[in-house]
Write a structure and sequence with these properties.
The complex is a heterodimer of chains A (294) and B (261).
Chain A lengths: L2 H27 L7 H17 L4 H24 L5 H20 L3 E3 L7 H5 L5 H24 L2 H11 L1 H6 L4 H27 L1 E3 L6 H16 L4 H23 L2 E2 L2 E2 L5 H23 L1
Antiparallel strand pairs in A: 1-2, 3-4
Chain B lengths: L1 E10 L7 E11 L4 E6 L5 H9 L6 E6 L2 E2 L5 H4 L3 E4 L13 H9 L13 H12 L18 H14 L4 E5 L7 H18 L3 E4 L3 H6 L3 E6 L2 E7 H5 L3 H20 L1
Parallel strand pairs in B: 3-8, 3-9, 6-7, 7-8
Antiparallel strand pairs in B: 1-2, 1-4, 4-5, 9-10
The chains are: A mainly alpha (294), B alpha/beta (261).
């Protein structure tokens, strides 16, 4: 693996680490498997792309994207808590609805950002070539978000959120409206995923309605890989583990795609298969090592 | 004064599995009352506690705390008034959190939760002081995860959590039934001490008739969703386990006759 490939994996890992932190909130903190993310990532990208091309500055566009993601998550949570639809199904419904919504927002299946201002322009002013700066800028961004999330999970509200995922009956008896906490949590999660989508769109220069396919799998792979390698004993450790998991996941994908056995090699369309195998390995490896040692 | 008037509760109403769990229960609870509740399985004891806590909605009747009608309040809103300890030690605590985090959550029972730190440093001394009264050494383990504790330790912690912020009403739902006899005796002793010390109004469901007689100032027996016996004071103190068992026997014989006739 070349240094350039490693830097690219670091960049992608940190960038999609924002999304993985969102998945961590639903999957681990709230224990609410949420597939909305496959729709809210392109939603964030679409909102940011449309906002930027209509003259809104890139940072406000990212805030708008986050707000849109929050609403998508809130929609899933309300389908579940108010209408009693099974959580997983509620999130699938929001996800497929978002496909249509995203095309409406972009007025087509994609939207280019070529020639438009992006937040990357500000990085160029640093004077270094963009391919060198971007990975570190992404790393800084995901670390700031992780610190924010760690701070939040240690507040009174964050603690109530952790307890809601762990023991909802207990925290309800202590006076917490668990339906509202779920709404805030799933909303926050999807806000992060949409923000990630907004950054991805600016980074690759376009938003595309299909860019969200496989988001949840990548997110879960990152969370589980991180837990397996780093551990999740405390909230801060778990959050850092998610980011490291996300980077490891991108490295693993890059390695897998670089395999050549004679004339045979993996193609990008094999990515989902590779991801699925990776998740299975990450989930079962603790069990396998335990069995071997006992 | 807590007034429970004519509460009725059905499960699966209008279906073949319909159960009429509470058939008009009336109970006036005076401040400082410690009422023990006994009855056979399916008598409606736990259902009544769940209705008072708001975890179950009632189909008829009303529940008042002083002059406030709380009948339509959801469980989380009643939490400022009611604290509850369940039979299952795992239900009362949040296993992924530390002892300190659990106590901090309980300290804010019924209060709004904002963005201030979940556990504040100056609270730790108070937590240690309260944990020390348990005599289990938990005061030295504030930052251990609750999942590491035994069932008895978790139930003791739950008792502390329930009374950390004095509730208007404490509901104990067979809270010693899942514990070994030695631990159960310890939790019961702790219950008696805490309730007396803070003068907490308490309802305690139990299957142990000796405990029901020994603890509290009033005793209530439930059967088929109704209160069938209420004693207090000297009359309660004079009760014996045999007398209560005879009473149970009569009730069951009576309901068997009803079914056979």
């Amino acid at each position: 693996m070349t240094t350039a490939a490693l830097l690219a994996a670091l960049e992608q890992g940190c960038l999609y680490g924002i999304m993985a932190l969102g998945v961590y909130i639903t999957f681990r903190v709230l224990d609410f498997p949420d597939l909305t993310v496959d729709g809210s990532l392109p939603l964030g990208a679409a909102v940011a792309a449309v906002a930027i091309s209509s003259g809104i500055d890139p940072y406000s566009a990212m805030v708008l994207a986050g707000a849109a993601g929050f609403m998508a998550g809130a929609c899933t949570a309300l389908l579940h808590t108010r209408l009693g639809i099974l959580g997983l199904l509620a999130s699938i419904l929001t996800m497929i609805a978002l496909y249509s919504v995203n095309i409406r927002i972009m007025d087509g299946p994609n939207r280019t950002l070529l020639g438009q201002p992006t937040f990357l322009d500000d990085l160029e002013t640093l004077g270094l070539p963009l391919y060198q700066v971007t990975p570190w800028a992404m790393a800084a961004l995901v670390l700031v978000i992780a610190c924010g999330l760690i701070w939040f999970l240690r507040t009174e509200y964050g603690q109530a959120m952790l307890a809601t995922g762990d023991n909802p009956a207990m925290i309800r008896a202590l006076g917490v409206n668990t339906d509202r906490v779920l709404l805030m949590g799933v909303g926050l999660s999807n806000a992060l995923v949409a923000l990630c989508g907004a950054v991805v769109a600016q980074n690759q220069g376009s938003a595309d309605v299909t860019m969200g396919v496989g988001t949840i799998v990548a997110g879960l792979a990152s969370v589980i890989l991180g837990e397996t390698v780093v551990g999740a004993a405390t909230v801060s450790r778990a959050c850092i583990a998610v980011i490291i998991g996300s980077i490891l996941y991108r490295i693993a994908i890059a390695l897998a795609l670089s395999i050549h056995i004679g004339p045979w090699s993996l193609s990008p369309s094999d990515l989902n298969l590779v991801t699925a195998i990776l998740v299975v390995l990450a989930m079962t490896s603790p069990r396998l090592t335990r069995r071997r040692s006992s | 004064m807590i007034s429970i008037r004519g509460i009725q509760k059905w499960f699966h109403r209008g279906t073949p599995q319909e159960v009429h769990a509470l058939r008009g229960v009336d109970l006036e609870v005076a401040p400082g009352d410690f009422i023990t509740i006994i009855g056979s399985n399916g008598a409606g004891k736990s259902t009544m506690l769940s209705c008072i806590a708001g975890a179950l909605s009632i189909d008829a009747g009303s529940i008042h705390f002083h002059d406030t009608d709380v009948t339509s309040w959801p469980e989380y809103r009643r939490a400022g008034l009611v604290a509850r300890v369940f039979q299952d030690p795992l239900r009362g605590t949040f296993g992924g959190g530390t002892i300190a985090q659990n106590l901090a959550l309980a300290l804010r029972r019924g209060a709004p939760r904002g963005l201030r730190p979940g556990v504040r440093r100056h609270e730790l001394a108070f937590f240690q002081e309260r944990l020390a009264t348990l005599g289990l050494g938990l005061e030295h383990r504030l930052h251990d995860r609750v999942a590491l504790l035994s069932g008895g330790q978790r139930q003791a912690l739950t008792m502390v959590m329930a009374t950390l912020r004095r509730p208007e009403l404490l509901l104990l739902d067979e809270h010693t039934a899942a514990l070994d006899p030695k631990t159960a005796a310890h939790i019961l002793e702790l219950t008696e001490r805490t309730v007396a010390e803070h003068g907490i109004t308490t309802l305690m469901v139990t299957h142990n008739m000796a405990h029901a007689i020994a603890l509290g100032n009033r005793l209530v027996m439930m059967h088929h969703g109704r209160i069938v016996l209420e004693t207090r004071g000297a009359e309660k103190a004079a009760l014996t386990v045999t007398a209560l068992l005879d009473r149970f026997h009569d009730l069951n014989a009576a309901s068997d006759r009803m079914i056979l006739s």
